[in-house]
Structure formats: structure tokens, C-alpha cells
């Protein structure tokens, strides 16, 4: 008998218990005919600001838009440099490029996959204006060290928390530690919406006010534009869906953490690098990512055994053709390049059953003999 299929993510099982509540909230939006921003978005912004322990939340149409808004709010532009990680989704670098600035890639901590503060310090130049710290796979960056670098060199600190809703660093929510936090609510994220959505968080009243204007065509009064802005507005339907789902996020996070700790126990002793939390960090395990030699062979074998996997970022950003002019070569950033070669994401979602997890672990143990 073939093994049951275990998907990398089962969004349907996550959302189906909330289908009626989501449908009712969406129906309210349709009946109101207020489809962009409006009461549903405002209510979600207030709730997410409180959840993320920030003074302000600005709802936008994607995590990419939130990151771009952050660099625009800092008036970063041509001639400036923004230090970030190469082992991330492209948006972490796009936010500098969109402003005509240069992304500067530095290596990662091989244990956490997050940006290495020592490498950041070594890369600072007089042209550096900001650091984009990516809380990758839900694990917080070493924020104390990064904040110290920013204070020493008068830099801004942008948190890319697209995969880290609710994660904590020394008791503090990520996204509320640096100058601004950027979140994504893409359907695969820990807090999903029904399409594209994002948010920017900050404690700074001035940044928040300008951010609300810039997301709305640089306008606070309709048809009057203080500066050139963007159509980065959140749709009301997304605000409605997020408002329904946000109260479930803590429970989903607890389920992810339980599954991750069980993976730790069941996979201990196998020739895999397992994810571990750094001291003072509480990961939300957006993904459970292991490093495995001969990654592609392992993925193919697991598929034959009914286990679905994924691998994010198979080519690090510093080696992407779009950034060839920056001059990075193979071997420039070895920890990031190893992660790109060897990373495998095992199934991880809050509604995953113990039987499904046992299937994954049995297939891995069989593979390694």
C-alpha cells in the first residue's frame, strides 16, 4: 500500500473551519460597496498594530510594497547602499533597487539562515543608509547586534518580517524592534489573506502619517498630492479576511512550534542540519528547513514515499542575473550558497496531524538507512 500524500502546506484544511465567517465578512464588504481601504482595513490595522506591539500599522497591497514604502520613507536613493541578505525572497533587495540604491549582500549565520551581524559590520561604508534584516523562515535575526551597528553608524533598521508574524526576540515582537517592520499576508504566510496583502508597522508618528499618504498616491485630501506616491492601498476584502483570521494566529503559531519540536526529537541523529532557535529567540516556524547533501535526490525519494517538500531560494540573490553587475561570484558568500544548494522544507502547517508527521519522519529514516 502506498503512503498517504503529505503536502508541504495544506491551506484548505487551515481555512475551511473559518469559511462561513470569512464569507460573512466579505459579504459585508460587497454590500457596503467600499472596496478599497475603509472600515475593514482600518479595523485590521488597529488589531494588527496591537498584536505586533507597534503604535501604527499601515495596510498595503503586498509585502513587496511594504518594503518599498520603508525605503522611500527613509528617502534612500541613488548613490546609497542598503545591506541585506542574499538568502531571501527578491523583495528584500528590490526595495533598495526600486529607489535607485545599491543592495549590498552579506553572508548569513549558517545555523539560523539569518543575516550575520559581523558580516554587516564589515560591509558598512559612508554610503550605507540602512540594513534590511530578514527574519527568515520565522526565526528572528540577532537584533541587539544589528541595532548596535545602526546606532554606531547612524543607519536605519528595516525588519523584513514577511515570514515571522508573532515571532519574538528577547520577549519583543519582531517588526516592532527596528525603525519599521514589513509584513506579507500572501496566502502561504503564517497569517494569510485571500490574495495579495501586506503591512508596514512603526512607532514613529511622522513615518506612519507619510506612509499612509504615500500608499494612497501621495494624498491625504482627495485629488491633492503632496508628493509623488503609489497605489499601494489594501483592498477591503483582504482587510476583512485578515480581521477574521488574526485571532487564530497565536493558536496556529503554538501548533507550528509543537510540530517543530517534535520534528527535532524524531529526526535527531540523522545526517541533516536541523533548525534550532538561537538564545532569546522564539521562531514561528513559517517553514521547517533542513540542510541535506544531495538535496534533489532526497526530494525525489520523499515524493515517491508520498511526502511533498519545497526548496526556497535555490539561487541566492547575489548570483541572480539581475544583479550580475554587482560583481559577486560563486564562493563570495559561502553560507548562503550552501543553503541555496542544500535546503529542503519539510511539511509544516498548523493542521498537520501527528500521523502525517510520522509519515514524513519514517520516509526520512528509511532514506538514510
Compile the SSE list and pairings:
Blueprint: H1 11-15, H2 19-32, H3 39-51, E1 56-60, H4 63-73, E2 81-84, H5 91-97, E3 102-105, H6 117-123, E4 128-134, H7 143-153, E5 156-160, E6 168-169, E7 172-173, E8 180-184, E9 198-202, H8 205-214, H9 236-245, H10 249-267, E10 281-282, E11 288-291, H11 295-304, H12 334-342, E12 343-346, H13 354-367
Parallel strand pairs: 2-3, 2-4, 4-5, 5-8
Antiparallel strand pairs: 1-9, 6-7, 6-10, 8-9, 11-12
Helix pairs in contact: 2-9, 3-9, 4-5, 10-13
Keywords: Aminotransferase, Pyridoxal phosphate, Transferase
Protein name: DegT/DnrJ/EryC1/StrS family aminotransferase
Active site: 189 (proton acceptor)
What can you see in these coordinates?
The protein has 369 residues and is an alpha/beta fold. The chain has two domains: 13-247, Aspartate Aminotransferase, domain 2, CATH 3.40.640.10; 249-367, Aspartate Aminotransferase, domain 1, CATH 3.90.1150. The chain has helices spanning 11-15, 19-32, 39-51, 63-73, 91-97, 117-123, 143-153, 205-214, 236-245, 249-267, 295-304, 334-342, 354-367, and strands at residues 56-60, 81-84, 102-105, 128-134, 156-160, 168-169, 172-173, 180-184, 198-202, 281-282, 288-291, 343-346. The strands form three sheets. A seven-stranded mixed sheet has the order 1-9-8-5-4-2-3, with helices on both faces. Strands 7-6-10 form a three-stranded antiparallel sheet, with no helix packed on it. A two-stranded antiparallel ribbon has the order 11-12. α5 links the parallel β2 and β3 (102-105). The longest helix has 19 residues, at 249-267. It is globular and about 70 Å long. The mean pLDDT is 96. The modification N6-(pyridoxal phosphate)lysine is found at residue 189. One of its GO terms (biological process) is polysaccharide biosynthetic process. The active site is at residue 189.
Amino acid at each position: 500500500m502506498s503512503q498517504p500524500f503529505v503536502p508541504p502546506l495544506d491551506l484548505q484544511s487551515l481555512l475551511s473551519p473559518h469559511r462561513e465567517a470569512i464569507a460573512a465578512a466579505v459579504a459585508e464588504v460587497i454590500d457596503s460597496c467600499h472596496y478599497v481601504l475603509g472600515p475593514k482595513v482600518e479595523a485590521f490595522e488597529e488589531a494588527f498594530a496591537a498584536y505586533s506591539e507597534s503604535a501604527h500599522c499601515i495596510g498595503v497591497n503586498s509585502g513587496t510594497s511594504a518594503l518599498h514604502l520603508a525605503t522611500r520613507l527613509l528617502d534612500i536613493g541613488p548613490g546609497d547602499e542598503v545591506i541585506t541578505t542574499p538568502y531571501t525572497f527578491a523583495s528584500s533587495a528590490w526595495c533598495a533597487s526600486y529607489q535607485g540604491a545599491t543592495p549590498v549582500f552579506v553572508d548569513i549565520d549558517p545555523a539560523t539562515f539569518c543575516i550575520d551581524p559581523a558580516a554587516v559590520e564589515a560591509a558598512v561604508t559612508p554610503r550605507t543608509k540602512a540594513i534590511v534584516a530578514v527574519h527568515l523562515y520565522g526565526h528572528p535575526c540577532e537584533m541587539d547586534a544589528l541595532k548596535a551597528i545602526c546606532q554606531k553608524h547612524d543607519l536605519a533598521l528595516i525588519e523584513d518580517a514577511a515570514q515571522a508574524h508573532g515571532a519574538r526576540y528577547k520577549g519583543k515582537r519582531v517588526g516592532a524592534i527596528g525603525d519599521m517592520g514589513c509584513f506579507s499576508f500572501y496566502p502561504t504566510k503564517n497569517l494569510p489573506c485571500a490574495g495579495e496583502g501586506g503591512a508596514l508597522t512603526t512607532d514613529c508618528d511622522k513615518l506612519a502619517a507619510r506612509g499612509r499618504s504615500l500608499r494612497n498616491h501621495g494624498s491625504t485630501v482627495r485629488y491633492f498630492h503632496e508628493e509623488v506616491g503609489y497605489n499601494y492601498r489594501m483592498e477591503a476584502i483582504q482587510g476583512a479576511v485578515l480581521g477574521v483570521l488574526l485571532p487564530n494566529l497565536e493558536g496556529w503559531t503554538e501548533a507550528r512550534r509543537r510540530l517543530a519540536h517534535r520534528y527535532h526529537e524524531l529526526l535527531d541523529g540523522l545526517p541533516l542540519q536541523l533548525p534550532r532557535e538561537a538564545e532569546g529567540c522564539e521562531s514561528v516556524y513559517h517553514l521547517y528547513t533542513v540542510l541535506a547533501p544531495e538535496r534533489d535526490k532526497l526530494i525525489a525519494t520523499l515524493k515517491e514515499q508520498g511526502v511533498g517538500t519545497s526548496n526556497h531560494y535555490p539561487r541566492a540573490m547575489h548570483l541572480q542575473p539581475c544583479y550580475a553587475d554587482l560583481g559577486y561570484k560563486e564562493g563570495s558568500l559561502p553560507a548562503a550558497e550552501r543553503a541555496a544548494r542544500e535546503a529542503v522544507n519539510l511539511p509544516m502547517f498548523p493542521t498537520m496531524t501527528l500521523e502525517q508527521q510520522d509519515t514524513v519522519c519514517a520516509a526520512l529514516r528509511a532514506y538514510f538507512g
